[in-house]
């Protein structure tokens, strides 16, 4: 399908989706989010794809929700349309892993979109922020919720109340991003990490994504029980037999998603 605001490429088992509204620093409007969710759902359903990389440009992953699209809306418009509610739900329903490869600005909804991914690789020029306070609003897609869980209350308050930006080094130190890499090699490195994940069994990949995400939604006791039961259930798969046999035979496992 031809998209106007994103570029989608599938190479081997990795689907790379690039946000592509350079004139607006990849600001997220309804059209872009609709196309993004469509592409993510297609990748999720494509048996060839085993991992997804979401990226932007060298200057901006995304500079936030599109202020020009939102500025004239009323409370009633926002509430009745459940503004961005549907793309948020669609995004969170994707079962395959999504890596955010962030260079430049990841602000407001851009920072929130990166946090909706499974983990974030940052270029050394990345800047994260929740500057919504400067616009007379608050974050609406996780900036007060997910960011607080990533970086803790003190930094989340600091960023949300002052609107200041966090650079890549601070973001890594604070647990917002998993790795920082040179800006020049960001996409290459994110795709290499995705290719590594693509080699694993899809059964365990999806089980891990679901289990880690469950840790945000439940108590420790329930989460540990869930994890243990999923662990037990994987002993009913060929990939568990293959993975453990390959270890003992000192060879690379050949997973078949069975
Ligand atoms: N929306 C619309 N257009 C934007 C946005 C944006 N968020 N960000 C940048 N642009 C546009 C600019 O208007 C400009 O367009 P034009 O050339 O037509 O004037 C173009 O992109 C380039 O931007 P700048 O000239 O400003 O570039 P600079 O390099 O000078 O500055 C910045 C870059 C610092 C990133 C600056 O553009 C900026 O501050 N942008 C806004 C950042 C921001 O406030 N983001 C938060 C937006 S609100 C939000 O995200 C809420 C999310 C909640 C959604 C969930 C709802 C339920």
UniProtKB/TrEMBL annotation:
A UniProt-annotated Pfam family: ECH_1
Annotated SUPFAM superfamilies: ClpP/crotonase
PROSITE patterns found in the cross-reference section: ENOYL_COA_HYDRATASE (PS00166)
NCBIfam families in the cross-refs: PRK05862.1
Signal peptide as annotated in the record: none
Protein name as it appears in the record: Enoyl-CoA hydratase
Source species taxonomy: Bacteria, Pseudomonadati, Pseudomonadota, Alphaproteobacteria, Rhodobacterales
UniProt keywords, alphabetically: Lyase
Organism superkingdom: Bacteria
Xref: InterPro entries: ClpP/crotonase-like_dom_sf, Enoyl-CoA_hyd/isom_CS, Enoyl-CoA_hydra/iso, Enoyl-CoA_hydra_C
Organism: Mesobacterium hydrothermale
Entry EC no(s): 4.2.1.17
GO molecular function, one term: enoyl-CoA hydratase activity
Family membership: Belongs to the enoyl-CoA hydratase/isomerase family.
């Amino acid at each position: 399908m031809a998209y106007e605001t994103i570029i989608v490429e599938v190479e081997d088992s990795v689907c790379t989706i690039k946000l592509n509204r350079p004139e607006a620093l990849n600001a997220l409007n309804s059209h872009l989010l609709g196309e993004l969710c469509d592409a993510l759902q297609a990748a999720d359903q494509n048996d060839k794809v085993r991992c997804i990389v979401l990226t932007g440009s060298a200057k901006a992953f995304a500079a936030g929700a599109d202020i020009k699209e939102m500025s004239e809306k009323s409370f009633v418009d926002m509430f009745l349309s459940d503004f961005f509610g549907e793309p948020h739900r669609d995004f969170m329903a994707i079962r395959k892993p999504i890596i955010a490869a962030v260079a430049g600005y990841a602000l407001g909804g851009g920072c929130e979109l990166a946090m909706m991914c499974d983990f974030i690789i940052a270029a050394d020029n990345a800047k994260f922020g929740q500057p919504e306070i400067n616009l007379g609003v608050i974050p609406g897609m996780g900036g007060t919720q997910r960011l607080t869980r990533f970086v803790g209350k003190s930094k989340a308050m600091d960023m949300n109340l002052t609107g200041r930006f966090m650079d890549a080094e601070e973001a890594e130190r604070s647990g917002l991003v998993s790795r920082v890499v040179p800006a020049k090699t960001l996409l290459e490195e994110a795709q290499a990490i995705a290719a590594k994940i693509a080699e694993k069994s899809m059964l365990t990949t999806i089980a891990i994504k679901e289990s880690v995400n469950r840790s945000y939604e439940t108590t420790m006791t329930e989460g540990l029980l869930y994890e243990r039961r999923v662990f037990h259930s994987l002993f009913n798969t060929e990939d568990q037999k293959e993975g453990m046999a390959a270890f003992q035979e000192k060879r690379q496992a050949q997973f078949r998603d069975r």
